[in-house]
């Protein structure tokens, strides 16, 4: 009987924890433990003993026993597969803007382990955001550009950087338990690289447990394609944490965006999520699917110790920006410490049809100056009335981050899950 009682107690505990942790990132344990790194400046990765350069046109394997330096633009071509062993270190070269490009039809199999992640980082002694290029993965899944073809050519070879096609199920490989640190180098007069660029990538590509930290551009950028993204982490990016455009159909789940008032939020157009259907309306095929992001259990926060002071100083902007013709369905997610939580493009007409394309359900809005506004219009009554409807089960709070999350200030293993039993929220 005693054993039965213990089992019942355990089940009740699990059910209770599940109910309390249903919003924001979830897990019975902190899934960031072991593979993530929040102080990459202080890690000594050692010196490179192998060079990666030029084109990789045959199947190639990188070994954990070596440390590789990524020099210049390295292209995986000719449908080759680049396989990287768990625990391998690849160092992006500052001088030559090391960048890894997986061309259309090729694959990257970087399948790390929780206890042995694959790391891409900087070769500078004092590491900073934008030290090297980043990782670019190009596939043949649909995009909404005219002709169904795009080109990602920030200082890259235009003949090797096309993406897009008709293969929704295309497979560009595996990225799992991978860290990308200090990427996002700026190309003068053009733009900054992203930590991880995912362009025209199909749904058979596995993208899980990927952390981009201190990126000079966007941490993650999705250009078209049909993708599943799980347990992504963007940490203190200079620009957007997650950018979606060109008709991407993305399912983002159990993922995190952490911003800093002094690194990221003070930059114009820099947000946790930016959801657009296009960069250039004249190049867009409106007969194709437009951008649709389905996001669940996302945590977005500004990790400031004094959010109100940072907001008053103008250092904090919106967490989410949604442009016209784009759709976002977000559920069971947390937005904490922004000004406001969500900003809608001024071109979006506020009517039932458009609001049905922009859904927020079972949300936890915390410590935001306002919840959902239209750009250039501070009158929030209509939107607040709509999203405040009890049918959506959205709740609002003004709790300090220390009270809201388990322990976001632990220097080694921060825990961004909601703190159990201490969240008191209202439906208004």
Write the layout of secondary structure elements.
Blueprint: H1 2-20, E1 50-52, E2 55-56, E3 60-62, E4 67-70, E5 73-76, E6 81-84, E7 89-92, E8 99-102, E9 107-111, E10 118-122, E11 134-138, E12 150-151, E13 162-163, E14 173-181, E15 186-187, E16 191-192, E17 196-199, E18 206-213, E19 220-223, E20 226-235, E21 242-245, E22 249-259, E23 273-275, E24 292-302, H2 307-312, E25 320-322, E26 327-331, E27 334-336, E28 342-344, H3 352-356, E29 358-361, E30 364-366, E31 372-374, H4 381-387, E32 395-397, H5 401-404, E33 405-407, E34 415-418
Parallel strand pairs: 1-4, 2-5, 3-6, 4-7, 5-8, 6-9, 7-10, 8-11, 9-14, 10-14, 11-17, 14-18, 17-19, 18-20, 19-21, 20-22, 21-23, 22-24, 23-25, 24-26, 24-27, 25-28, 26-29, 27-30, 28-31, 30-32
Antiparallel strand pairs: 12-13, 15-16, 33-34
Care to describe what's here?
With 428 residues, the protein is mostly beta strands. The protein has one domain (25-418): Pectate Lyase C-like. Helix content is 10%, strand content 35%. The protein has a 17-stranded parallel β-sheet that branches. It has an eleven-stranded parallel β-sheet with strand order 2-5-8-11-17-19-21-23-25-28-31. Strands 12-13 form a two-stranded antiparallel ribbon. A hairpin with a 3-residue loop joins strand 15 (186-187) and strand 16 (191-192). The termini are far apart. Mean pLDDT is 90; it is low at 7-20 and 424-428.
